[in-house]
Amino acid sequence: MKEDQVVMEEPGFQDEEESLFQDIDLLQKHGIEPGFLTAFEYSEKRKMVFHITTGSQEFDKLLGGGIESMAITEAFGEFRTGKTQLSHTLCVTAQLPGAGGYSGGKIIFIDTENTFRPDRLRDIADRFNVDHDAVLDNVLYARAYTSEHQMELLDYVAAKFHEEAGIFKLLIIDSIMALFRVDFSGRGELAERQQKLAQMLSRLQKISEEYNVAVFVTNQMTADPGATMTFQADPKKPIGGHILAHASTTRISLRKGRGELRIAKIYDSPEMPENEATFAITAGGIGDAKE
């Protein structure tokens, strides 16, 4: 009997090994090398990175040129700090030719909180003197109703980017965490929520790098019950925990200033220093603060 058992175990082991090689073949078929690049080769690949202007020169300077491609940029703040205004402005500026030979392109907007307003794009288009209908035609819009639905939409996004290679330049999700907050509540479901969130963010990262697009997500804030112990000036923090913190390449914190002024601060970035920039919310979207 024991001999049989040994014989039985063998094929299972071979299957695993074969499936590993099949996975590697599959990766190579999709143009993904499961090996290493030299730092020089990677720096050549990074030369394809472009920046999309926010509409404010000060803000762009803070970000090193604007919203970066091949990366996830997260903007978080309380309500009325300009997150959705920034999303709408980017819908227009991403279509305009910009610095460094950027040619402009189409946008996909995933809306989880029903905050997308096409009329707002018309106002912003007026500021940049571009045709309303052309601007609206270049934005693909989807409303997500559950976190599962949000995940499924990313499959559609990847297919679209693959189909029309090089045409799409920006993916916006406003806001990234809202549906996860609704679908998973309480501490009992936190682990599952974070796992699902991690899967979605890993998908987003892959999409941004594979298709060289900029990914811009907005996020909400929550009171931090532990902050009173550490005497922080502002006891609020972005939601999503460490998983979202590590997935976002650049995190920008937004807060209200006087009147229509808003202050953006680099909260976390691999290459930009922790500076601040003041910008204004105008009829034509995000602009520079007038002194």
TrEMBL record:
Primary residence: nucleus
Domain RecA family profile: start-end pairs = 48-221, 228-291
Q: Name one GO cellular component term.
A: condensed nuclear chromosome
Could you tell me one molecular function GO term of this UniProt entry?
A: DNA strand exchange activity
> Biological process GO annotation list?
chromosome organization involved in meiotic cell cycle; DNA recombinase assembly; DNA strand invasion; mitotic recombination; reciprocal meiotic recombination
Q: What keywords is this UniProt entry annotated with? A: ATP-binding, Cell cycle, DNA-binding, Meiosis, Nucleotide-binding, Nucleus
Q: What domain of life does the native source organism fall in?
A: Eukaryota
Q: Where in the cell is it found?
A: Nucleus
- State the SUPFAM superfamilies in the record: P-loop containing nucleoside triphosphate hydrolases
Kindly indicate whether the keyword Cell cycle belongs to this entry.
yes
Q: What's this protein's family per the entry?
A: Belongs to the RecA family. DMC1 subfamily.
Q: Which PANTHER family match?
A: MEIOTIC RECOMBINATION PROTEIN DMC1_LIM15 HOMOLOG, RECA/RAD51/RADA DNA STRAND-PAIRING FAMILY MEMBER
Q: What is this protein called?
A: Meiotic recombination protein DMC1/LIM15 homolog isoform X2
| Originating organism | Vicugna pacos (Alpaca)
- Gene encoding this polypeptide? DMC1
